[in-house]
Amino acid sequence: MILYGNLYSVYARTVRMVLSLKNVSYLLEDIDPFEDGGKDALRSVQPFGRVPALEADGFTIYETQAILDYLEAVYPDPVLRPVGREAAARMRQVMSVADSYFYWPLVRQAAVQHVFNPMQGAPVDVAELEAGLDAAPRVLDALETLAAEALVLRPGEITLADCHLWPMMDYALMVPEIDEMVARRAHLAGWTAAMVETPVAQETAPDMEALKADG
């Protein structure tokens, strides 16, 4: 099994978390789509030149949620889908919120401008950073409501939703303003505190010092 994905990609990390939880061996082809030639190198397995993509026994699949569904079907132990129709629906809802509303403002705008650009010596776009911070409360409120319901995002219980959201949240929490926003939302704060301590979150964490050195 080959996983095409960059170590700093939130979506590649999601897949790595699931592979680790299911104890599946794989080879990581570390390709950065943002580097010169990265997109071209990926187009043989992902026509849009993005990560991740997974190759297993001659079957190639891309798009993170599709990859997770495939892995859950092929490797059902441990089960990473919550029990019950409502909980399963909430799991998919959290994953969609992460993709549609969380990723761009909290990661690509706030975290990239506050964390990644300074580490790599790139200029900070203050307007982009502020736009991300302005969008954050509504996103975090939605996740707080879902966490308070306790069908998903339950401390101590990992599902596909946790694996999908955590890599994004991990970067977002590196922005002090977002860290403070999360701390003011008790259920979401409890979830993040539990996720920080989980072995799979720790073993898949990106090496930010290496990123700084590369920059």
Describe the structure.
The protein is of the alpha+beta class. The chain is built from 10 helices and 4 strands; from the N terminus they run E-H-E-H-E-E-H-H-H-H-H-H-H-H. It is 61% helix and 7% strand. A hairpin with a 2-residue loop joins strand 3 (53-56) and strand 4 (59-62).
Q: What layout of secondary structure does this protein have?
A:
Layout: E1 2-4, H1 10-21, E2 27-29, H2 38-42, E3 53-56, E4 59-62, H3 64-74, H4 85-119, H5 126-149, H6 160-172, H7 176-183, H8 186-197, H9 199-203, H10 208-214
Parallel strand pairs: 1-2
Antiparallel strand pairs: 1-3, 3-4
Helix pairs in contact: 1-3, 1-6, 4-5, 4-6, 5-7, 5-8
List keywords for this structure.
61% helix
Nutshell version of this structure?
This protein is of the alpha+beta class and 215 residues long. The chain is 61% helix and 7% strand.
Query: Number of helical segments?
Result: 10
Helix content: 55-70%
Distance between the termini: 31 Å
Stretches where pLDDT is under 50 for at least 5 consecutive residues are none
Q: What oligomeric state do these chains adopt?
A: single chain
Largest sheet: 4 strands, mixed
Order of helices and strands: EHEHEEHHHHHHHH
Q: Determine the structural class based on helices, strands and strand pairing.
A: alpha+beta
Order of strands across the widest beta sheet?
2-1-3-4
User: For the CA atoms, what is the radius of gyration?
Assistant: 17 Å
What is the number of strand segments?
A: 4
Strand content: 5-15%
Overall pLDDT: 96
What would you call the shape?
A: globular
